[in-house]
Task: structure prediction
Amino acid sequence: MIPGAFEYHRPTSVDEAIALMSQHGDEGRVIAGGHSLIPMMKLRLAEPGHLIDLRDLDSLRGIQPAGRCIEIGAMTTQQEVAVSELLAEACPILREAALLIADPQVRYCGTLGGNVANGDPGNDMPAVMQCLDASFVLRGPQGEREVRARDFYEAAYFTARAEDELVTAVSIPIPPAGHGYAYEKLKRKVGDYATAAAAVVLTMSGGSCESASIALTNVGQTPLFAEAAGQALVGTKVDEAAVARAVEAAKDIAEPVADMRGPEEYRTHVTGVMVRRAVERALTRARA
Amino acid sequence: MSKIPVKMTVNGRAVDDLVEPRLLLVHFLREKLNLTGPHVGCETSHCGACTIDLDGMSVKSCTVFAVQAEGAEITTVEGMANADGSLSALQEGFMQEHGLQCGYCTPGMIMRAHRLLQENANPSDEEIRWELSGNLCRCTGYQNIVKAVRYAADKLNAQREAAE
Ligand SMILES: Cc1cc2nc3c(=O)[nH]c(=O)nc-3n(C[C@H](O)[C@H](O)[C@H](O)COP(=O)(O)OP(=O)(O)OC[C@H]3O[C@@H](n4cnc5c(N)ncnc54)[C@H](O)[C@@H]3O)c2cc1C
Ligand code: FES
Ligand code: FES
Result:
């Protein structure tokens, strides 16, 4: 499987990368870790005439606290996310989700920016970012803007990012100390995308749920922020009745397609199971 | 498309060449450098038979363009033997523990296990399985591969202790 021919560019600054993106328009494509793009190029599902390689842009790498947020550079790899002490401490759901992506080799190459920019409903980080209410920092010829993960995804492979905009970073509000979290993903084997997956972050106070946020992976054209499912838990003791309401609310918005992972009914059912498991596990981790 | 120059270090040797940008690293290694250790198994980034070590990371060389490896330090299984030509602890482990049958997956397994032991000198069997989960073997049933990595870890740890 040989990809189509292209011209290779290796910019040394973000501005140069953006200039190349503007110049080549829909003929150009940036390449980060290449672990979604190169497989697509081999299948000729993508045939860019110009590849703009981001690997020399060191300013897009790294994990830093920035006020009440943590900022992660777009070129930070999934491996770097998984081993970061800062994230393990402040936002451990990222580590849990990163380790459920693909296999070690893919995680060394695949980047957080590529994972959220790609727009494949199978990618795991987009729902996690929606759960955390993260924003993506976009930079283009007109300057910089931020788009919330909850507003970013429009349809499979369509996002709010313009053709000449680069995702430079992901900005994540630090969840409150003592929050509970879980990312539950059903996959058939290592290296498979989710049959269904659910991200949950919740906080408890005096035995009752103060806040809860739930998002779903690979059960629609886009990641799904399950707002009503989260709301079903708030103000409750997260007892059986509340969990059952959250599960139903999540299943209500799931619209998986039948594929080799199973028919729609099954994948919708699994969505509910993942939400239940994630809520229950998040609860055991939350400080009451 | 015009060819472009690439330079990298492969198994300690400086190489430079002109390549088409779409040339995959695995084909560069196999066809231009005659390093046929990295195997092409699935071509779809799943099997790990093409795994090499690139700048301290285990990488599937079928999913990287040669031009992206500009300036990189690469090790393939051909670079694994000791300086005197004897087998490295991992290679010896695969031999002693029958960690291979047809051998197709072996170069990838050894390169992945090599990086694993750099990062974790004393992995549990469960950690070995988890860290090798991007490498498929259709023959051995994995049991002896885990034993081979264990053998190498024990041998290297014993050598380190003796040196201290
Ligand atoms: C065997 C295998 C299994 C996998 N399993 C999973 C899985 O379970 N879950 C999962 O989430 N992913 C999975 N992946 C995909 C992997 O995580 C990718 O690495 C990731 O989706 C994309 O990151 P990348 O850096 O490789 O991006 P690339 O492949 O380089 O790029 C992907 C797309 O995003 C665009 N892009 C990249 N970076 C930017 C940027 N900074 N700004 C704007 N656009 C950008 C590119 O132009 C391209 O269109 C798997 C991949 C393989 C090969
Ligand atoms: S040939 Fe590269 S992963 Fe299978
Ligand atoms: S020994 Fe045959 S594939 Fe592993």
Summary: The pocket of flavin-adenine dinucleotide (ligand 1) is lined by residues A 29-37, 39, 74, 101-102, 106, 109-111, 113-115, 117-118, 123-124, 166-167, 191, 193; B 45-46 (CB under 6 Å). DSSP finds five helices and five strands in chain B. Residues 17 and 32 of chain B are 9 Å apart (CA to CA). The interface with chain A takes residues 1, 4, 20-22, 24, 43-46, 48, 51, 57-60, 63-65, 67-68, 70, 112, 131, 133-134 of chain B (CB under 8 Å).
